[in-house]
Known about the structure:
16 helices, 13 strands, binds N-pyridoxyl-2,3-dihydroxyaspartic acid-5-monophosphate, seven-stranded mixed sheet, about 400 residues, alpha/beta, two-stranded parallel sheet
Amino acid sequence: VSRFEGIAMAPPDPILGVSEAFRADTDAKKLNLGVGAYRTEELQPYVLDVVKKAENLMLERGENKEYLSIEGLAAFNKVTAELLFGADNPVIKQQRVATVQGLSGTGSLRLAAALIERYFPGAQVLISSPTWGNHKNIFNDARVPWSEYRYYDPKTVGLDFEGMISDIKAAPEGSFILLHGCAHNPTGIDPTPEQWEKIADVIQEKNHIPFFDVAYQGFASGSLDADASSVRLFAARGMELLIAQSYSKNLGLYAERIGAINVVCSSADAAARVKSQLKRIARPMYSNPPVHGARIVANVVGDPALFNEWKEEMEMMAGRIKNVRQKLFDSLSARDKSGKDWSFILKQIGMFSFTGLNKTQSDNMTNKWHVYMTKDGRISLAGLSLAKCEYLADAIIDSFH
Length: 401
Ligand SMILES: Cc1ncc(COP(=O)(O)O)c(CN[C@](O)(C(=O)O)[C@@H](O)C(=O)O)c1O
């Protein structure tokens, strides 16, 4: 008797499945605006120069392939926390951060979810509405209950700040509040500095625990420090908080699966104990993380010349997306006769633009125009070239009306 016979076919992933459909399309006009992966103006994947330089250094050095410790490469864990908080931040000086290398952002979020499930039974995580599609899968599979706080306002194509604050205020005391550090996915809408202060106020009032997902540090504004300001604001208030990091986008290390989970505790002793429990969770999950990406980050951030060159390349990538954003706005404004206000395209930040196209309209983008995007109306500007902006504008205008 066959035991696997009864297993059903799983549906394609809402984001990664779009790339599969794109690859199957043979039309030369096809555009992949699905997955959040940077492409050059020639629409090619991009390996940063500093990554190649770091890898050449590593090759010359001839490093071994011994297991890392469960918590990952020590040099990486040091520089990743310093990059996030700033090396002179009190949380670093007082050794109050438990940092564990994770399998990129996803794996780091999953490790944190497992910690929450084990040590905070019944606590829920509040996630933004909408949010990155995989957040719900991660908390569901980690058996951590979640609910949503209002975030996107379709009427203003902006942030529903009042709704966000009241939902966070209404959540049971001690809830985990999942926040996008910068470049909110999928909306591209970030709170202002003043709004971050108020979000910190209400989280402190309710003894909630802030839980940041920082997948785009440096990629949103082009500045590593500016993009970390929300996290640093909360740390400066002396709050305990969790932060998941990823180097997929800002260092282009997508397939190297390099990231980290950081837990800011109230004492160095607590941080040591939290780190030991994160290790206990990681060991049976994947035992220890991959070394290659960790060494690249440690080499790039650890070497002043490479670090500066990385910052220049990141500004170049963020800059290209800003140019594409502007060109798309100009093309839409010039070609659309309906008088629709497209300024939301310029107000949004980071890789994505949340167009407001509904599922049927998004299907039209794909079926008629061969533009691949997620069904929630998100387009990844990282996959768009200046040369293709007018074509995309025509597709969007056609799909809206
Ligand atoms: C907010 C957020 N958090 C975490 C991750 C995880 O990224 P990684 O595991 O590679 O570090 C992504 C990537 N999200 C996508 O860019 C996207 O939304 O297209 C894509 O990589 C993905 O996996 O869906 C993200 O957008």
